[in-house]
Amino acid sequence: MAKDNKNIKEKKPKFSPYWIYGIILSLFLVFTLFNNSGLDSGNTTNPTQFFNFVKDGEVEKVEIVNRRLAKVYLTKEASQKEIHRKSKPTSFSLSAAQIPNYRFEFGELEIFQNELNKIIEEENLELEPVYLTEENHLADFLIGILPFVLLIGVWIFIMRRMSGGAGGGAGGQIFNIGKSKAKLFDQNTEVKTSFKDVAGLEGAKEEVQEIVDFLKYPEKYTTLGGKIPKGALLVGPPGTGKTLLAKAVAGEAKVPFFSLSGSDFVEMFVGVGASRVRDLFKQAKEKSPSIIFIDEIDAIGRARGKNAMSGSNDERENTLNQLLTEMDGFGTNTNVIVMAATNRADILDKALMRAGRFDRQIFVDLPDVRERKEIFEVHLRPLKKTKDLDTDFLSKQTPGFSGADIANVCNEAALIAARNGKKAVDKQDFLDAVDRIIGGLEKKNKIITPSEKQAVAYHEAGHATVSWMLEHAAPLVKVTIVPRGRSLGAAWYLPEERLIVRPEQMLDEMCAALGGRAAEQVIFNKISTGALSDLEKVTKQARAMVTIYGLSDKVGNLTYYDSGQNEYGFTKPYSEKTAELIDKEISDIIEKQYERAVKLLEANKDKLTELAEVLLEKEVIFKDNLEKIFGKRPFEKEERENLDK
């Protein structure tokens, strides 16, 4: 019997807000009916015909209603005429005498009265208009309540839209605006991502795996007196795999996993964010042990008090305050673990970062060459590739690439192979994909004059020549004068992955970057705007040497970099005299490297010209072409050993 009662309760019909919409429509129709018509309405006519009826003596009585409507009653003889025979409509209970033969609306009452009186006098008629005032109580009532009903309907519609309820019968969702929007992943939800799908990130994976193990086997840690961390913050550049790591945790942990974004807490209504935080932790505690994952937590976790215009009642700060209380305050539950991800850890509130809230900060950095190989192997699984594809070579060709970039390379390589009609993805497809991602799409049909093409060729040949002559410059891969993206040409290098950089290495890179403009000066004795990106690069490097790394003899072992601030703000941390010294030192460093590049190119002007001619002929040249012209580099062996390492 209890089971039957339960079923009865489950089948209880829910209130549907579409009833509200039906009521509004019905009220509107009834209002229209009673306002624009009546039970005693006859056939309509117009003032001109009415005045003709009066002249012919066919009108027995005329009633003026509410100073705008005329009801016309004809004489008995006139109503028998064929033209008026259909002018007497039937009604429910009114006698025929009470029903007007015609009705019409007129404009200005005084004009209508003057015209009617004029006809009565001219025809010597005994016709006196009757003036009436009729009140339609139902119409007045509907007019009074209609705005309120419409307001209620619009409010219900907005609430449903904001709460995410779009189907009928979901009336309870109207008041779900303060409920959490977190997606729940548990044993009933199939999550295919596991730690096997996360290549590289060994340190980060080990730390989050420890949290999963604690939830699975808590006695392993509690027997030694250990406590589970309350929070883990994943920090790193975009595309390094922070969210992927969280998906793996959801797939590996056999506990409820709540996932949502930081922006899901933010709403236009005051107090909604804090309410959603409370509801989220309430659900997590009910299903504990559990994990909460907040992606892009910087949406609500920014440092408080930075914006003076927001005031103390800022909605985002209220949401953050509630989150701080839930993570570590009275009544918190230790069986709820909070994971979060951000690439802006520098702007997060200090109270959020302290021990007891986010106990662990897990740094997810860009992968090194070994980790890139593992990531390539993961993303190459679904591709049809050639058997001789070397993943070691691919990993060395993609320094500085994140996991997302590598996934994009694999996808682009497959698309390029399909575009060329191949049955398998080969090495060249991956190289083309890397070029496509770094430099942009090739524009072989771009209109360029012969003089511009020559200038571009010498510019790129200058980069290649100077970098070939310098010991610490990055090894050259290829040079092209085919327009790609916003550039008219490019020189591709394979930079060495260094953990620390020495001054001579930075200076050699700056000199190689200025080789393009130096080549224009040496060959044409004039320069162009083509070196914009090169100048931007060397200026940033020189400024970093002087103001950040303390590598300038004149400025000394000082740094004006503050890790807690991205910008200097309104005041610089040095005097005007020091600013002049910094500017002069930056200029001196750049000009010295430019003169160095000019001297190198003047000493090898014939080889520079030969290289540019080959580049104009083939449009794309590789390392082999440079070896034919310049011979092997004296430090080639040392570079090869570093790359192999």
UniProtKB/TrEMBL annotation:
Q: Which UniProt keywords apply?
A: ATP-binding, Cell membrane, Coiled coil, Hydrolase, Membrane, Metal-binding, Metalloprotease, Nucleotide-binding, Protease, Transmembrane, Transmembrane helix, Zinc
Stretches that traverse the bilayer? 15-34, 138-158
Quote the catalytic residue positions.
Answer: E460
Keyword check for Secreted: no
Q: What class of enzyme is it?
A: hydrolase
Q: How does it sit in the bilayer? A: Multi-pass membrane protein
In this entry, which stretches build a coiled coil? 591-618
Task: Provide the assembly information.
Answer: Homohexamer.
Which family is it part of?
In the central section; belongs to the AAA ATPase family.
**Name of the featured protein:** ATP-dependent zinc metalloprotease FtsH
Q: Which organism is it from?
A: Hyunsoonleella flava
Q: Which gene encodes it?
A: ftsH
